[in-house]
Amino acid sequence: MTAKILVVDDQPINLRLMQARLRDEYFEVILATSGAEAIEICRRETVDLVLLDVMMPEMDGYEVCRRLKADPACRHIPVVLITALDDMRNRITGLEAGADDFLTKPVRDLPLFSRIRSLTRLKILSDEMRTRAETTMRVLAGNEADAVAESGTGGSVLVVVDSPAEGERLSRILRSEHTVRVHVGPVADLEAAAIEPTDLLAIDLQAESFDPLRLCSLVRSNEATRPLPILVLASDGRDETRIAKALELGANDYILRPVDRNELLARARTQVKRRRYDESLRRSLQQTIELATVDALTGLSNRRFFESHLTASIARARTDAKDLSLLIADIDHFKQINDGWGHAVGDGVLRDVAARTRDSLRACDLACRIGGEEFVVVMPDADSEAAAAIAERLRRVVADQPFPIGGEMISVTISVGFSTLIADDTDATLTKRADQALYEAKRLGRNRVVLRAA
Amino acid sequence: MTAKILVVDDQPINLRLMQARLRDEYFEVILATSGAEAIEICRRETVDLVLLDVMMPEMDGYEVCRRLKADPACRHIPVVLITALDDMRNRITGLEAGADDFLTKPVRDLPLFSRIRSLTRLKILSDEMRTRAETTMRVLAGNEADAVAESGTGGSVLVVVDSPAEGERLSRILRSEHTVRVHVGPVADLEAAAIEPTDLLAIDLQAESFDPLRLCSLVRSNEATRPLPILVLASDGRDETRIAKALELGANDYILRPVDRNELLARARTQVKRRRYDESLRRSLQQTIELATVDALTGLSNRRFFESHLTASIARARTDAKDLSLLIADIDHFKQINDGWGHAVGDGVLRDVAARTRDSLRACDLACRIGGEEFVVVMPDADSEAAAAIAERLRRVVADQPFPIGGEMISVTISVGFSTLIADDTDATLTKRADQALYEAKRLGRNRVVLRAA
Fold it and tell me: What's the gap in Å between the CA of B133 and the closest CA on chain A?
């Protein structure tokens, strides 16, 4: 996939050269000759990656990187620093500034393009979710996401290596900031790794007792492990094409041996941070969806969800030529509970009735609270006989076991009406019959089930 | 990026051969020897792509494809049919069955891997959104999405070619099912294409007056056009590596010249369908987010949004060392309107007040309806003087212009209280002071603005 790349360098000749190389590979290129200009562009436009020269007058690349990563509008854009120097201190400074990687001049094609492709692919993957979730997240989750994005320590790291000694070496470094598990040899049961909460997978690319590239592929091919960041450990010079392949398969970053303690920690923090950021986006989106569809008091679906669900269920019943029944239940004399013991006690009873309802239904039934003390259940594939059985079971689980109310155990009952789908029913007519049946159940003395046939 | 691929063939030897080729490229492979088994696997597991032999006993590949595409649980999985025959009729049958592409035996590496990479990349891109949105969508949007996914006609197609004659040739075919615009030569202003609602971009890969690969790259690099499907027109034999490059850059499909009418229509329909499906996912997610945060009656933000927004705004004001003011407005004697003219009229007044409020605020202010006839406005960067001016403007736009109530024009007023952030404020204390100020405004005779200093 192609991408839009911002190249930042104070030397026009460097800019032109890099532009030509990138355009030959069909990337779209924007140029900036200073850090200030680069920041301006990132705030204004969609940029997929920044290639950033470190040595610039006024504001150097580290500072530009720091500012980009501190700005909520830009922090998701990957930054690759380009420098003439390849000493470890500069590398760490760059990573600490939030850079996603480091390339040393002269920049060769293989590392350049494999890095760009890998970083932009990851960005584009999360863009959709980010644009949807970020606004909501910032308000609904308050500053939680910001806070979370600040810290890349305290993660859970799974190290997969060839020998216990190597595992111990890496673990000793990583343990200072994370919880570390070491796995020696082939990961037979990947699911186990997925189930335990893991924030980062560190894989030895030089392992021989298993195929590390195959492991990268396995992690990326399973839905459960797909979002897990992968950091591979490789050897300078020897592993260049294997590194490129690992990045192509979906590894997020690599580190070269001999492993520098500070570099490993910095790269691990970057990945753990990103993982947490992505997770907080996902959580926020999930929460938003729940807020829109779930009744906060009881955890059942809300009225809005019920209405759409009923429409869809009727359509499906028609297509599949199956039955469908609808049940409406109302707690008898609920007002007396609320008035007598207060709302808190009333709410407790509602929650309890909801829980009993949920427990007494089939997996395919959907229970909703549609208002005050009124509940409905949509029952696909249930004719009047099956629905009557479910309704009666529901009436009993409420009536048979008293509720703890104001320190006493007090009996509560519900009245239930239900209806079954007929040929020319609409949502409204089906609901209306169930409602009439409920009314009838109330009129007949409550704590009973009534069917309203067509 | 790697992916999990299901290979379906009744010949074990074919299965083994394909498995070896795919595993060499680090794809994860699952095998099935019949259509029934394949469908079972797709329903149960996460599959990223199906490579499906057409000639199988019992259920042939077309039927398997049809069933997969008819099943909401599987229809998003790309299907590539593999056949010994390459005549046009089979091709069309496959496309009509919903196949995403066709490969002819013997299947060569370049078309195989470029197709797999392109299709799985597109799938993985939309997976995240799909898994979030699909459940909600199915219920909240009812069967709209299903209906939409059924039809791939009536789309808006933009054809980009070298010559008017070629444009007319393609347009004549596509016009029978879509609205077609033809663009001859370089697309200088891509934004125009993005702004007009387009469902499909058909690009001539043999064009010489512009670089078609560059155009693919441009479309994919701009956020606005990124989701647009691209179909490239190429020449058999001559363009193989260019086709692979186009797919790599993000083209969704290709068709070979001489263009067969039915094949072009079938491929266009497939892309338009997918585009609509993706759009309906996006819309549904957007709606869900709105449902969770917007007050349905007035379109202002709701109480839940207000509460999180206030927390976030206070934190931001502290970080930036800026002012923040909070205003609470309440419609005077609203109960008389509701009781006298009914709820419908009351709702009309609420909507009208909300609209006037929105119009009288600065862009950075956020107005919310937090209950019955009560509104709040969060005003970042506003000290007590600025907030007083905004509050007074708001009071006036309500009081100065009477409301249409029951056929008459009747004057309505609001009382407004506001407070300004001080050092040790919490959400609760800031809100409480604004509330006390509102109470004071009511007590002093209504239709006025009161500040409650700390």
Answer: 9
